[in-house]
Specification:
The protein is of the alpha+beta class. The chain contains four helices and five strands; from the N terminus they run αβββααβαβ. Strands 1-3-2 form a three-stranded mixed sheet. A two-stranded antiparallel ribbon has the order 4-5. Strand 2 and strand 3 form a beta hairpin. Helix 1 crosses helix 2. The chain is flat, with a radius of gyration of 14 Å. The C terminus is likely disordered.
């Protein structure tokens, strides 16, 4: 199992800001990302993980319903 540390994720996002990465809809590449693309890029860069692009695809493919006794129906990552 690949574990990505929060500090590594924060450091990567800070580097992206220092390097003036810009927002571009539908992108997940060096220098240009959209909201979910930032996470797609980060997880690939830090953990070699391939995530689907887009919030709907992330929820559909990377989340499952938790039992109501655990989280009252919230989504949680596998």
């Amino acid at each position: 199992m690949t574990i990505i540390q929060a500090n590594d994720l924060i450091a990567l996002f800070k580097r992206m800001a220092r390097e003036h990465w810009h927002y571009e809809w539908g992108k997940a590449k060096e220098g240009a990302v959209d909201c979910s693309g930032a996470f797609v890029y980060a997880f690939k860069e830090l953990g070699g993980l391939t995530l689907p692009h887009g919030s709907n695809a992330l929820v559909r493919n990377c989340a499952r319903e938790a039992s109501k006794t655990r989280l009252h129906g919230d989504k949680v990552a596998r």
